[in-house]
Amino acid sequence: MSAPATTGSAGTAAPATTPAEPRRIIPLAFRAAGVGLPLLSVGAAVGFSANNDPNAFVTYAVTMTAAVTAAVWGLWGLVDRRLLRASETLSREAGLIAHGTADGKTGARIPLARYGDLAPVAKAVNELSDKLAAARRDTARTVAESTAKAEEQKTRLAAVLRDLHEGVLVCNLKHQILLYNQTALDILHLAGDLGLGRSLLHFVVAEPVIHTLERLTLRVREGRHVNHEHGTTAQFVGATTDGHILLAGRMSAILQDPPEGSDELPTITGYVITLSDATSELAALGQRDALLREATEGFCAPIANLRAVLETLDDTPELGPEERAAFQAALMESSNTLSERLARVTNEYRSVVTGSWPMSDIHSTNLINLIRHRVGPEAQYGVTLTGLPQWVHGDSYSLVILFGYLIEYVYALTGVPAYDLSVEPGDSWVYLDITWRGPSVPSGIVDSWLDHPLPDALGGLTVGDVLQHHKSTMWSEPVKGPGSEGELLSRLRVPLPPALKPPSAHTAARGGARPEFFDFNLLHQPLATSELGRTPLDQLHYVVFDTETTGLSPSTGDEIIQIAAVRVVGGRILTGETFNTLVNPKRSIPAESIPFHGITDAMVADKPTIDKVLPQFRGFVSGAVLIAHNAAFDLKFLKMKERASGVRFDSPVLDTMLLSRMLLGEGGDHTLDGIAERLGIEVVDRHTALGDSLVTAAVFLRMVEMLKERDVRTLDDAIRGANIIVELAARERAF
């Protein structure tokens, strides 16, 4: 224990006793021992030698040993009592002071006189105690001020949330509830509290919430939230777990910004959901749907009857000409009126139904990947993503459920184990197709599916309801497959509305087209002169690739910073089988090149180097014919890294730029954008390595059909024609 000494000014203790006196004891004791022992030694030696005692040396040794032992033990006792024990007590008192509290200007005190030679240490502890007390007072004051501000903000937030007409819930990524308002309780019809930390999915059907969070996560991960119309928010329709209440919701992602100066994308740490009770609204919508369906489709039979009567009258010759004419005119007028009314009501009905359902722009790749995820790996059939991506407008959750259901029913009907999912742009629609090898589904069966309720759909939606929300329909038809054999395939086609904004609004255009490169040693290839060379172009296995680089000159130090590729088999772009990776160039990326590819130093800092990437890429392209646009540019970079990576790129290569010159002549635009525009290929997600690979693949598949018309049918034919173009270009350069 310590009793506080009298203090003067804060932090300075008034001396209660003078510590100088005790400080002399230990030094004096050591001095006395240091002087006394030599004097004793000399005196004893003189005394014993004067007595002429034969045992004088032994007596001297014993005497001096006893004297030294006594001196050592005396000094040790003094040090132990004055220093060691005092320091132990001092440390304990310092510990008490560290764990104590102080409300005054100074902290707890240690009496200096109690510690003798350790008085300076005790004084330093007192000074630290004063500073600790001051720090505690500052901390307590700051905590009190922050608590008061937090309480004030909490009160304001509570007042705002209380006055909102929508339920608000804040959740983390584990769907645990962190905050909610009273309106949320009222909407969910819950008595008492939701309980902080409980899972939202205990009260709300999980699928729409999880699906919406997946959509936002993909949007943020790909950086699309920056230019997206709805930013980091998305609408959804949900329900309580008991199914009694339908909910209209909006989810907003809570983002954590990356470190300042970093080019990394933010990450989602949680989300805010606003809910409103849509039970009565959607119930009324269902009743209205039923009423309008009766009012529209119910007209069909009366109109058919009217027209049947007209036909009957035509077949009844007993009526006079005037009566017949008047009767026919009246019936025809009524029939036309009903037909016009039916068309008008039907259009208005579809417009109202579509406008009342929450929709948003969706990237087709994300939509199809969600469909594949719903089908799952345990299914007895597989789903392959093919074709170029597009943007559509719709309710992604109901569309995912719809297409998962349709694939399952087609499989149950046909037993076909493999299906392609693709999108194809049209004049005013984007067609989402389910394609398979086998017989098509009869139209009567397709129509019968319209009344089937969809599992996991909210509000008991049927197939027909989802299609009507999108102003859509569906049909099954046979189609000619790709390739020279023209295999007969079947597809189930569903037209969807295009995105409200054009695709260009979703992808920021970067730099202009890459200049044309003619490395004649790389472009002039030997013929395959094997079975591969005689294989028809539409039966080959291709890998279409593209690179992004720090600059345009590999011989002066420019490096690959991204390489991507997509597989093309049987005339199908296998969008789900891609290679795409960033590469650390081990050098800085010039600022002037960033607008062309959008890749920064921070994005590649932790990526593998080219000697690690190229063996993986070589494995991906193994056994395939390589396709690239302006291929000499990309091949130059690959060839220069063959020795460092320990691989060789000796596969045949076709260049769509050379093929374009072969087909269209030297004049005109032979850039990738120019060719795609002339071929009517809609370009989405351009100016990335993978996006350019996809567009190049679509361009090449269109060229295959055009090459057949020029009697270019095999790989050797295409290489021979490309070599001619290269030789002509070389001669032009020579002149």
Protein model, in words:
Residues 81-137 form the HAMP domain. One of its GO terms (molecular function) is exonuclease activity. This is DNA-directed DNA polymerase. It catalyses: DNA(n) + a 2'-deoxyribonucleoside 5'-triphosphate = DNA(n+1) + diphosphate. It is an enzyme of class 2 (transferase). This protein is of the alpha+beta class and 735 residues long. Helix content is 47%, strand content 16%. It contains 23 helices and 17 strands. It has helices spanning 20-23, 25-50, 56-99, 119-163, 182-187, 206-221, 279-297, 300-314, 321-355, 364-375, 396-414, 443-448, 463-469, 520-523, 594-597, 601-604, 610-621, 631-640, 642-645, 656-664, 672-678, 689-709, 715-734; strands spanning 167-172, 177-180, 233-239, 246-256, 267-277, 360-363, 382-385, 391-394, 418-425, 430-436, 475-480, 488-496, 541-549, 560-569, 572-582, 625-628, 653-655. The strands form four sheets. The chain has a five-stranded antiparallel β-sheet with strand order 2-1-5-4-3, sandwiched between helices. Strands 7-9-10-12-11 form a five-stranded mixed β-sheet. The protein has a five-stranded mixed β-sheet with strand order 15-14-13-16-17, sandwiched between helices. The protein is elongated. Mean pLDDT is 79; it is low at 1-22 and 505-511.
Could you give a quick summary of the protein structure above?
It contains 23 helices and 17 strands. With 735 residues, the chain is of the alpha+beta class.
